[in-house]
Automatic annotation (TrEMBL):
<dbReference type="Pfam" id="PF22422">
    <property type="entry name" value="MGH1-like_GH"/>
</dbReference>
<dbReference type="InterPro" id="IPR004888">
    <property type="entry name" value="Glycoside_hydrolase_63"/>
</dbReference>
<protein>
    <submittedName>
        <fullName>Amylo-alpha-1,6-glucosidase</fullName>
    </submittedName>
</protein>
<dbReference type="InterPro" id="IPR012341">
    <property type="entry name" value="6hp_glycosidase-like_sf"/>
</dbReference>
<keyword id="KW-0378">Hydrolase</keyword>
<comment type="similarity">
    <text>Belongs to the glycosyl hydrolase 63 family.</text>
</comment>
<keyword id="KW-0326">Glycosidase</keyword>
<dbReference type="InterPro" id="IPR008928">
    <property type="entry name" value="6-hairpin_glycosidase_sf"/>
</dbReference>
<feature type="domain" description="Mannosylglycerate hydrolase MGH1-like glycoside hydrolase">
    <location>
        <begin position="36"/>
        <end position="410"/>
    </location>
</feature>
<dbReference type="InterPro" id="IPR054491">
    <property type="entry name" value="MGH1-like_GH"/>
</dbReference>
Length: 419
């Protein structure tokens, strides 16, 4: 494993800020130079959270810049293309400019975990900036309205993802069966860096799914009636629930009624308990109407909810702390349970540990006053970045870095963990 000279907290914080400065393009923060040269949606929300205390001006710009990509439907796209740099699949695949609801700035046609209201709440908490809450609030209300109107494909109050990219955890084993049920596609698109994470056939299926949705005019009716990939994911919905609660708290500052947002959160909680729980939370495939019985880090998204019933909380924390997850590795939290046959310590969302999911779990520990768990997550995550740098993800057994270097959310959330 690579050795880095020992750094104290102040130096680590300075390094993190330097990474974020270098990844700022003038209009937004790219997740990492080279591999991800545009603005990614949930990455930006994590950057807002990390910069809230240190650079609130930049945090505000980051959020507004991302929201320039919001569609008239309320959908916040998973990629906003501010630069001309090549990326596949880029604007020529998404063709957002041909869609009446799309903004002037070029974007993808998919969404991603709705972290943004939680990020706005975080920013408010650290700045007290009511004027900014008033400014950003309506866009986030529209984002949530889009999810409840266009994405409640199961009709029970949860938002469905319609593509693995929408989960933020694109190669998670949770999507394997749904992808395998799609026709075998061979476009032969090559992207050397992506090849490391996605076998060709998977990546071609990703592109095929995206193009089907595009060719159907990005229509909600098509998603409901025809689209072959529709999954209720506990991480996506756990984040959405936390963001609904954030909107409920921010609403009075924006002169709005908190009740609809609190009610939405209650609906999501009930639907997750009714539809996704069986000893732990699993994703539900709406096309087979079955739970996808592989336990990944996504299973812990619902823990972000302070209203999660205590017996569910206890059972989920037991799984988290067991040898299936944190109990077996020196560096929590692996992205897939270790005993699963799909677990692979080297492949992105199939095993490695990520700073953003560790941060989300630390947030969950805080909302439930699980102080020891929170401290353990903080210490172990900081140990990862101290030893290996701001890598994209990390081997959960020896902590060595994987994927890109100078990864924005690893730097941003380190700033928050250090505080
Ligand atoms: C596809 C940018 C994004 C993150 C995702 C992560 C990865 C892209 C990819 O990088 O996804 O959008 O190429 O695999 O899985 O969470 O937002 O950092």
């Amino acid at each position: 494993m690579e050795a880095r000279p020992a750094v104290d907290d102040a130096a680590l914080g300075r390094e993190a800020l330097a990474v974020l400065e270098a990844n700022w393009t003038g209009t937004g923060t790219v997740p990492a130079p080279g591999l991800y040269p545009h603005q990614w949606s949930w990455d930006s929300a994590f950057v807002v959270i990390g910069l809230a205390r240190h650079r609130p001006d930049r945090a505000r710009d980051e959020l507004l810049s991302l929201l320039r990509g919001q569609w008239a439907t309320g959908m916040v796209p998973h990629i906003v293309f501010h630069t001309r740099e090549a990326y596949f699949p880029g604007p020529s695949v998404w063709r957002s400019q041909e869609h009446a609801a799309a903004p002037h700035v070029l974007t993808s046609g998919l969404t991603s975990p709705p972290m943004h209201a939680l990020a706005l709440w975080w920013l408010y908490r650290h700045t007290g900036d009511v004027a900014f809450v008033r400014r950003a609030f309506p866009a986030l209300v529209a984002q949530h309205a889009y999810l409840s109107s266009a994405r409640d494909l199961g009709g029970a109050g949860l938002a469905a993802i319609v593509h693995p990219w929408e989960s933020g955890m694109d190669d998670s084993p949770s999507w394997d069966d749904a992808l395998a049920a799609l026709p075998a596609i061979r476009y032969g698109y090559r992207n050397v860096e992506l090849d490391e994470r996605h076998p060709d056939s998977d990546h071609d299926r990703y592109v095929w799914l995206a193009m089907r949705y595009r060719d159907a005019g990005y229509r909600a009716e098509y998603l409901r009636d025809e689209h072959p990939f529709a999954i209720e994911d506990p991480m996506f919905n756990g984040i959405w629930l936390a963001s609904c609660q954030a909107l409920a708290e921010l609403a009075p500052l924006a002169g709005a009624d908190p009740a609809p947002h609190a009610e939405q959160a209650d609906r999501i909680r009930q639907a997750m308990l009714d539809r996704l729980w069986d000893g732990c939370f699993y994703a539900r495939d709406l096309r087979t109407d079955r739970l996808i019985r592989v336990c990944t880090v996504g299973a812990f998204g619902p823990l972000l909810d302070p209203g999660l019933p205590s017996d569910h909380l206890r059972a989920a924390v037991e799984v988290l702390e067991s040898a299936r997850f944190m109990g077996a590795t020196g560096y929590p939290v692996p992205s897939c349970e270790i005993r699963a046959t799909q677990f692979d310590r080297t492949r992105y969302w199939r095993g490695p540990s990520w700073v953003n999911t560790n941060w989300l779990l630390r947030r969950a520990a805080a909302v439930h006053s699980l102080d020891q768990l929170g401290q353990q997550l903080t210490n172990c995550t900081l140990r990862l970045v101290r030893q290996a740098g701001f890598r994209e993800c990390f081997d959960p057994f020896d902590g060595s870095g994987r994927g890109c270097r100078d990864f924005s959310w690893s730097a941003a959330l380190t700033l928050d963990l250090l505080a």
